[in-house]
Amino acid sequence: MAAETLGEPRDRKPSLQGSIEAFQDVVSSAVIIPKEDGVISVSDDRTIRVWLKRDSGQYWPSVYHTMPCNTCMSFNPETRRLSIGMDTGSISHQGKVSVVLFVLEMEWLLSTGQDKSFTWHCSESGQQLGTHRTSSWVSGLQFDVETRHAFVGDQSGQVTILKLEQDSCSLVTTFKGHTGNVTALCWDPVQRVLFSGSSDHSIIMWDIGGRKGTAIELQGHSEKIEGLCYASHTRQLISCSSDGSIVVWNMDVTRQETPEWLDSDSCQKCEQPFFWNFKQMWDSKKIGLRQHHCRKCGQAVCGKCSSKRSAIPLMGFEFEVRVCDSCYGSITEEDRAPTATFHNSKHNIVYMHYEPTTGCLLTSGTDKVIKVRKKYCLY
């Protein structure tokens, strides 16, 4: 079955380049083949397919292969190796394989599964080199070749950093900033920052290279984060969520950490008691108020002292959030200038892949359709 292809975009806005619809089930993973105008797809209907674009501009199936079961894949364009994760846990897992990652420089195949394990194998001999037990089902995996650090995100919302050796590993550190499970990880080896996306709708940028524990929040989605990709040549982060929204973040700006929320028994502006502060309520003969927090300064405030709303893009708040009245007065129009652009993919996304050499972005959705967009890097 041919796939629909649209014309070249006339401007720099993201434009649909083509779509592939010949699937019986949801495509769980797909990648763009660079230099060949092709797509490799892995579907829940147990098929692996290679689609090549013909002179007519349509994607046609070139290779069709059926597997007993499959869930995820890792494709290396340099060696043209395709690694497939299986529902059965094939490799060495007792449950479904959730992520596979091939590391050419080490000839390692990293994998994680729903059996709460992380393993790495020699890709040449197939021999298992090591394994590490995790506290929760692993749902995200990235690797830094230079330091041999593996970044493992799990369903508890925690990210673990492991130092891998040929046959052993050691725990470097763990950090947690999400209230939901980690759904996506993306590593930038140049700036040495790790991006994590979560079911809590947020993205966190962890400054690993800075060694200061800096964590920058990005709030621009209203549903679960399904994918993260980083374009290092333009310093842009591309994120997508399950409701079909795609956000392109400008990371070439100086961003600020969001403050910790302060604890208080009374409003830190007008000193009116909060509703659990019975002693002050009795002494002042006043009704207790509900507690809120200013997103800019982190102070505990009442509703009357935080009646304003404002976007604070450099703190990651692209949409308007609650701020106290004094902070609102300090925010300029320049401070409100957006640092991200928002786009609608027009299908509920389950997977995303970005190909930097062509600037193409691929998404697959619950509608069993793959969409390829051209020129996704803006600004």
TrEMBL record:
The keyword Lipid biosynthesis does not apply. GO terms for molecular function: zinc ion binding. Residues 261-332 form the FYVE-type domain. WD repeats lie at residues 175-208, 218-252. GO terms for biological process: positive regulation of fat cell differentiation. It is found in: Early endosome. One of its GO terms (cellular component) is early endosome. InterPro entries: WD40/YVTN_repeat-like_dom_sf (IPR015943), WD40_PAC1 (IPR020472), WD40_repeat_CS (IPR019775), WD40_repeat_dom_sf (IPR036322), WD40_rpt (IPR001680), WDFY1/WDFY2 (IPR042234), Znf_FYVE (IPR000306), Znf_FYVE-rel (IPR017455). It comes from the Eukaryota. Keywords: Endosome, Metal-binding, Repeat, WD repeat, Zinc, Zinc-finger. This is FYVE-type domain-containing protein. It comes from Periophthalmus magnuspinnatus. The lineage of its organism: Eukaryota, Metazoa, Chordata, Craniata, Vertebrata.
